[in-house]
Amino acid sequence: MPQKTQTSANRRGKRTVLIVDDHPIVRQGLAQLINQEHDLVVCGQAEDAHEAIQAVRESQPDMVIVDISLKDTSGVELIKDLQVQHPNLPVLTLSMHDEAVYGERALRAGARGYIMKQEATEKVVTAIRRVLAGEIYVSDGMAAKMVSKLVGGTGKKTGSPVERLSDRELEVFRMLGEGYNTREMAEKLHLSVKTIETYRAHIKDKLALQDASELLRSAIQWVNTELQP
Amino acid sequence: MPQKTQTSANRRGKRTVLIVDDHPIVRQGLAQLINQEHDLVVCGQAEDAHEAIQAVRESQPDMVIVDISLKDTSGVELIKDLQVQHPNLPVLTLSMHDEAVYGERALRAGARGYIMKQEATEKVVTAIRRVLAGEIYVSDGMAAKMVSKLVGGTGKKTGSPVERLSDRELEVFRMLGEGYNTREMAEKLHLSVKTIETYRAHIKDKLALQDASELLRSAIQWVNTELQP
DNA sequence: GTCCCTATAGGGGAAACCCCGATACTCGGA
DNA sequence: TCCGAGTATCGGGGTTTCCCCTATAGGGAC
Question: Which of A95, A173, B75, B132 sits a CA distance of 20 to 30 A from A125?
């Protein structure tokens, strides 16, 4: 059951925030952090996606803070749902996971910001204000990464950057995700190991990936999402 | 740097608690929860193992609350260290991970309790009191599981072969799945690259994996299933 | 014709991987 | 009590992979 932690009498002129997190302790810490700001107030809490949808309807918050890993639906799904039902409601994603894994997904789903629980509390408040002001908040590192990804895409947005791979490159990418290593791919495709290495390098460039393990993770993830879209 | 959140003037007759967690928000929530109890007070906070050791020495707490997943060393290693240096200092493990994976390891390392962040705040307070009273606190489900394990003995192979990994090995396995490479893990754990390589070899043996890429895939998959069970 | 993309491949150094072995410490059984 | 098994920690040295640079040849684009 969504709880009201503040009566409307307290909200005079304050911006209202709804907290969605399945850890009571985190909710408590966040609530205290927000309520001690003079112009912010927590108008409700929820611990899963269902409660969250309900709480948004009831308390009409100015923004929502959503944890990525919830119990029932994932936070990403919740963000998508909220986006459909309340397109103008800004969402800040709060997560303990590395932004590299979920950051882009969260933003793609419609979130207006992503911040990790490891961050200092002041940064969390900053993120909240930025999102309330209609801006986007991400860490500097993540912003740089997304920019370079866009630049690499030559401005044209063709959906997933995977589509920019050539046929051979895509083939190598898929086999990577299916678990083949370089030598196995070379044999299977009757090519030199060196050629496969070149393809890997091109894929890394086009997808703006750092090193081999990031490439492999990306490939595995892509293969998995391709199987069940 | 460990912070003192209460002066000793406030501690009159109160039991003191040290909080070790790398998430500022969680520390804040936990501290508030504890400080609003009439007979408990937070005497310090730390965000990694090194700070924790130092803070224990300085603030001499009556008990410590340790998060399992810290930045440098894992919480399990910290618990072992604390156990050696302060055998009578009770430790409560607080974790977002399922108790099935880390609960037994934490207790084996010397913790006197294990509670998940998903639990209601009242349960957290209960756990703190139980541990302070010299008792052991685990969830009912975990208690039942451990009893049946004792009674059932070696009857059946319980769960995945991942449970056969040692603490260090599991740590490396998890970090592998989270995308760290060998060098990064060595730095993060303050170990030699060679040691990490040995752990990888042991993991490969225990899980009967062929080569490095199979190991990496397996680790990625395990981490993903841990996140969304 | 020149430029860019793609497919193919090599050289060479750095890093990772992998099979050995080694030391030290703990803990449970013979 | 000693011994072996398991764990934690590291090194040597050979093999493989990674990664940056370069290169050739064909096909479109302008």
Answer: B75
